[in-house]
């Protein structure tokens, strides 16, 4: 279980003025839960993720992984970003093995795990390819394998499909759900797309900016496994609409509702 | 596939035939012009006169070529040996960077031609001042480009490494240095051609051998063809060294050019 307890983050701006990036965020995420964070840019989603994995200290409040307070980098988290950020000089296989190398756990069984993961995302036979030989979607699949190789309990994903075209994006979402169900990870997934947020999640956390706050947390009651058709259910539409309204409530904020 | 063959032949002509052809035509025109207008040999020698000068000197040119070559290469190697750690220091610590940046900028801004005579006073007529001038002109692009390269990894990649609790050593060995390689080689390609110029400047100021010395000596006796010959050899040396560095680049970062 991850517990975020009234976490705030205040930056000093260039001219020395304090800026509230996040104010009083509280959230509990159960083991194996799929939680999406949705909100306009500048509402501190990425800041929250960086604090969660211990890359950034909170100004006040605390974050707990079970009984352990987060005070430094959490190696039991796998991270995926909007860009694949692969090591362009390494093969697909060596990219996936990167965390193993950093953690100093290199061994035979990991080679087999690389095969299993590449199989899982449909990249069997691509071990020796270089990143520049792959499409954007394939590169992002490699990044996903890299995030899973050390078998972390938690996956933290910062707009992982934001740079992909709509079709690849749906495909990747379905793949992620399949992997999540097979491996029972806790997933925290940031997105700009309300529809994506609803379709993937057990719960959607809606955030509003200046200062970054949680506006509401909504349960998604749709059954698992999710299918593409569920996007046409009335309750799906209602959730999307509710979330859109929550975000739009803040005056002066344009809402971009991507497919 | 005749179409493919034709395309290949065309690419070959465009990539090799065209530049070589232009060069041959230019040299031919030069030859004709000096003869047609009866230009005196001490003013502008014809290409054939330059070739004759090289032939006349023969093997006695080699020691001069060798001296300038090793002054250049030593200065160049020194610029890497000192430039790379300096780049690391600049990237690693903002304070160190702030502290030494003005010094680096000053060494770059001082006209090397003006500084070379002072080096001569300090270090005498030997090879050391030439190597130092070559080093001084070559090291700036090495430092600047390497520093740029070390800073080039995406912040997310560095986040990922830190989240996996990578050590600073790991971050440099596995991310920063490999990322810096293409930038490093860009710097080296500039540096190697500059190093040749540096060595020649060093020789101009005071020396008893080397191709730069040969130019000075030849012009003072109005042996213009020999001066041209030395110049041509210098250009040739710079080109050969440049392509050697470019070849190393292809060995060490074969992914580059396709990765972006």
Quick recap of the structure?
The complex is a heterodimer of chains A (259) and B (260). Chain A has 259 residues and is of the alpha/beta class.
Please tell me about this protein's structure:
The complex is a heterodimer of chains A (259) and B (260). Chain A contains eight helices and ten strands. Chain A is α/β, with parallel strands linked by helices. Chain B is built from ten helices and no strands. Chain B has 260 residues and is mostly helical. Chain B folds into two domains: 1-38; 42-252, Orthogonal Bundle (MetI-like fold).
Secondary structure blueprint with pairings:
The complex is a heterodimer of chains A (259) and B (260).
Chain A (H helix, E strand, L loop, with lengths): L1 E11 L5 E12 L4 E5 L6 H8 L7 E6 L2 E2 L7 E4 L11 H5 L1 H6 L4 H13 L15 H13 L5 E5 L7 H18 L2 E6 L2 H7 L2 E6 L4 E7 L14 H15 L11
Parallel strand pairs in A: 3-8, 3-9, 6-7, 7-8
Antiparallel strand pairs in A: 1-2, 1-4, 4-5, 9-10
Helix pairs in contact in A: 7-8
Chain B lengths: L1 H35 L10 H11 L4 H31 L1 H16 L2 H12 L4 H23 L4 H9 L4 H38 L5 H10 L3 H29 L8
Helix pairs in contact in B: 2-10, 3-4, 3-6, 3-8, 3-9, 5-6, 5-8, 6-8, 8-9, 8-10, 9-10
Features:
heterodimer, A: 259 residues, alpha/beta, Rossmann fold, 2 domains, 6-stranded mixed sheet, 4-stranded antiparallel sheet, 8 helices, 33% helix, 25% strand, B: 260 residues, mainly alpha, MetI-like fold
How confident is the prediction overall: mean pLDDT of chain A?
90
Order of helices and strands of chain A: EEEHEEEHHHHEHEHEEH
Q: What's the total count of β strands of chain A?
A: 10
Please give the largest β-sheet of chain B.
Answer: none
CATH class of the largest domain in chain B: Mainly Alpha
Termini distance of chain B? 31 Å
Mean pLDDT of chain B: 92
In terms of structural class, how would the helical and strand content of chain A be classed? alpha/beta
Q: In what order do the strands lie side by side in the largest sheet of chain A?
A: 6-7-8-3-9-10
Q: How many independent structural domains of chain B?
A: 2
- Helix and strand string of chain B, N-terminal first? HHHHHHHHHH
CATH architecture assignment name of the largest domain in chain A: 3-Layer(aba) Sandwich
- Class from helix and strand fractions of chain B: mainly alpha
* Percent in helix of chain A: 25-40%
Largest sheet: number of strands, sense, barrel closure of chain A: 6 strands, mixed
Count of alpha and pi helical runs of chain B? 10
Q: What oligomeric state do these chains adopt?
A: heterodimer
Overall, the morphology of chain B is flat
